[in-house]
Write a structure and sequence with these properties.
This protein is mainly alpha-helical. The protein contains 19 helices and six strands. Helices cover 61% and strands 5% of the residues. The strands form three sheets. The protein has a two-stranded antiparallel sheet. Helix 3 packs antiparallel against helix 4, helix 10 runs parallel beside helix 12 and helix 11 runs antiparallel to helix 12. Bound molecules: arginine.
């Protein structure tokens, strides 16, 4: 059924219908559509715009429609234009005249604005919950690995020794920021557009405060033109989702590297790996690669809606129907990525011996050797030069700084004494990094306590 047949003399072309319809994808928020209608109808009755009997009939009708959709008794047809027409048509079919009053004082423009907001608000909270679960998994790894040494990298070159807990802590910070971004969006978006009408409000004495409250909003939006054409919250959400995917993708990239034959820092569990159809020895990190790959399509959804919105005059334009398919796909992609990533972390094992051995090679303690000289009165720039010479010497002999004899040290600088060996030991290098945010087990422990509190 069409909601707007009155002024038309010809049937809609089939191709036009197919191109114009949105039921195939906006059926996703049938629940929110019905929820919004129920609030609207309660308000209409409170304002004496419809009778109590009509309110009861409508609400009951809407509830049976929802039940029938959920039980599979009512299926989405190919004729309805969108979820709003679908629900209204079935309501009228079921309860007759009272159903025709549902849309009093409302337009599909404020209706769809409300449905989208309710849907995004729920999805946003779900994303937040998934992030929280992931943070719990990261914290678990951190607690068990404050003394698991591994090389920290810059330029993908070994730089200074850190711990596995410290490395995971970096991602803990990222996903923590992602959550706080979601909380910000929630605060900004949580105002109700219902009652804005097509664009200019209505002449009915609607109580917008009341519907806003029924639907758990802070209050009604304050400009009806903006209310029906605002999709900022969706753009903000997609941008937060893009940043989440960027973080996941960086982590996945590291996991692919750590899982490579050359590194062997981690073993991805069999249940999160796949094999090759031709090479029997292969165990591939497909899940990490796929999450890294899917990041592109989430960015795509963000760029798409930004581009759709940029040329739109006020107020509603049909272009805005494009706010659904790609965003919905992006939301589902992020949710499954977060779930799978968390599962992969929970089941992954760490080859801590290999990590530690790798830290011992590659001169990750060179900075500490220079700091030793500084502590003995050598200016840092000179110390840097002296240790450069040590590294060159070691590279030629194929040994580590720890393997040089004291004579060899003193041949390059007489400042070195026997205590140099203690000063450049792996645990010393890490233990001495005591400023807050640094990797020493002591500071990591303090940070872990803060994170535990945060997750409570
Ligand atoms: N399916 C439409 C959308 O998603 C619903 C709003 C239709 N409003 C209109 N004036 N045609 O945007």
């Amino acid at each position: 059924m069409k909601l707007w047949g009155g002024r038309f003399t010809k049937e809609e072309d089939q191709l036009v219908h197919n191109f114009n319809e949105s039921l195939s994808f906006d059926q996703k928020f049938y629940k929110q559509d019905i929820q919004g209608s129920i609030a609207h109808v309660k308000m209409l009755e409170k304002q004496k715009i419809i009778s109590t009997k009509e309110r009861e009939q409508i609400i009951q009708g809407l509830e049976t429609i929802q039940n029938d959709i959920e039980s599979g008794k009512l299926v989405f047809d190919k004729e309805s234009e969108d979820i709003h027409s679908f629900v209204e048509a079935h309501l009228i079919e079921r309860i007759g005249n009272a159903g025709k009053k549902l849309h009093t004082g409302r337009s599909r423009n404020d209706q769809v604005a409300l449905d989208m907001k309710l849907y995004i608000r729920e999805e946003l909270m779900e994303t937040d919950a998934l992030l929280k679960t992931l943070l719990g998994s990261l914290l678990n790894v951190m607690e068990n690995n404050t003394e698991t040494f591994m090389p920290g990298f810059t330029h993908l070159q070994k730089a200074q020794p850190i711990t596995l807990a410290h490395h995971f802590g970096a991602y803990f910070e990222m996903f923590k920021r992602d959550r706080s971004r979601l909380h910000d969006i929630y605060k900004r978006m949580n105002y109700c557009p219902l009652g804005a009408g097509a664009l200019a409000g209505t002449t009915y004495p609607l109580d917008r405060e009341y519907t806003a409250k029924l639907l758990d909003f802070y209050g009604p939006t304050l400009n009806s033109m903006d209310s029906v054409s605002d999709r900022d919250y969706l753009i903000e959400y997609l941008s937060a989702l893009s940043i989440i995917m960027m973080h996941l993708s960086r982590f996945c990239e590291e996991i692919c590297i750590w899982n490579s034959n050359e590194y062997r820092f981690v073993n991805i569990d069999d249940s999160y790996s796949t094999g090759s159809s031709i090479m029997p020895q292969k165990k591939n990190p497909d899940i990490a690669e796929l999450i890294r790959g899917k990041t592109g399509r989430v960015y795509g959804a963000l760029i798409s809606i930004l581009t759709t919105m940029k040329g739109l005059p006020l107020a509603y334009n049909k272009d805005m129907q494009e706010d659904k398919e790609l965003p919905f796909d992006a939301i589902d992609t992020v949710k499954s990525s977060l779930m799978l990533f968390t599962g992969m972390i929970d089941t992954m094992t760490f080859n801590t011996d290999i990590m530690e051995a790798s830290t011992k090679h590659g001169f990750t303690n060179a900075t500490d050797a220079a700091d030793y000289l500084v502590n003995h009165g050598v200016p840092f720039r000179d110390a840097h030069g002296i240790v450069g010479k040590l590294v060159l010497f070691c590279e030629e002999k194929g040994i580590a700084l720890d393997d040089m004899t004291l004579e060899e040290y003193q041949a390059i600088s007489p400042v070195f004494q026997k205590d140099i060996y203690d000063a450049i030991r792996l645990d010393t290098c890490v233990d001495k990094r005591l400023t807050i945010g640094a990797p020493s087990p002591k500071t990591m422990q303090e940070v872990i306590e803060i994170y535990k509190d945060y997750l409570k």
